[in-house]
Design a protein that fits this description.
The chain has 384 residues and is an alpha+beta fold. It has two domains: 21-82 and 181-382, Zn peptidases (Aminopeptidase), CATH 3.40.630.10; 87-175, no CATH class. It has helices spanning 6-34, 48-63, 223-242, 262-269, 303-316, 334-338, 370-382, and strands spanning 66-67, 74-83, 88-92, 95-97, 103-105, 112-117, 119-120, 125-130, 133-140, 155-160, 170-175, 178-192, 197-207, 213-214, 218-219, 247-254, 278-284, 294-297, 322-325, 343-348.
Amino acid sequence: MKRPSFFAVAFALVFCFSLPAQDMVYTTTVLRQLCSPAFYGRGYLKGGLEKSADYITAEIKKIGAQQLFATGYHQWFDFNVNTFPDKVSLKLNNKVLKPGFDFIPDPQSRSLKGKFTLEQKDSVTFVGVNESGKLLLSLKNKLTFSVASNSVALGLLDVLKTSCPDKPKTAEVQLDAKVLTKFISKNICAFVPGSVSNDTCMVFTAHYDHLGGLGKKTYFPGANDNASGVSMLLNLMKHYMAYPPKYKTVFVFFAGEEAGLIGSKYFVESKTLDTKKIKFLLNLDLMGTGEEGIMVVNGAIHEKEFSRLQNINEQQHYLVEIKKRGKAKNSDHYWFTEAGVPCFFMYTMGGIKAYHDVYDIEKTLPLAEYQDVFKLITDFVRGF
């Protein structure tokens, strides 16, 4: 075999060391796009979820990964979701409060409107009734939103304590809730062929949906949760297209995670993949920090794989700490665990504390250990 020249080796080294910077530029571009107003929180208003799915699919095609299904990259399913598409306003003690920043509706709240005289029930709970229904108002130290599949018989509002220094006495509310039945959504599925085997596979997953928005102007960007995980999957896909993996490597971008792990449940129950042929699955969420290391859900279950992950980290000095916990129904790995698939759910720790709120934005996401987490993952997968 002909020995490569000094210049060829030097060029290859420069090229390899330039990859992280290029990847971070791509990462920032993906984050900025997924968190943009046009995608409106990647939820159920203004076509946000559909636009984000179209964007991710277009990126997959650019990268060159293959479609998992004969019909394309998408796996369709539907579910019910409660939304707040129109008016979301609150005037408390004649003071106008801003949705998302000063108050939020509970995800299960019904529609409500008009003026209410409030009666105090305890130190943080206030109740009012008018012809439109009953209002239950709660004072909170922090506002966090989520997604519900239905509405209840009450109008429910959470108000930030610091936005209401005086005891709530009167409220003027306009809250329009609407349950969308059989909302059509899709998982996005692709793969990179294995260089040794396509009979068994490695799987990477991340959810691309988020909380959507409230009314016409307020939305939840979801930078850390989980635009960061989506960008990590796309970067991994680029990596394995450039450096073919040993085994068939499948990438699944789930919808419906915030609504109750619906997309991953459908994926597993529909037997999209033979779970017995999955060597290992890594589910990635909250990849945007890392100053305090990472947490590995199922690390206490799969001790051998967790020890190997720790050994890699100790040798390469990637992260300050890798913590482990047991089984938890807190992300899309869960249904795979239930089906007997060996898997980890990884998320970064430290840094910003924005979570399920309007402050989880791309501009303040530190990405402190993003590249080291990427290296840790690829080193770990290489050992299979």
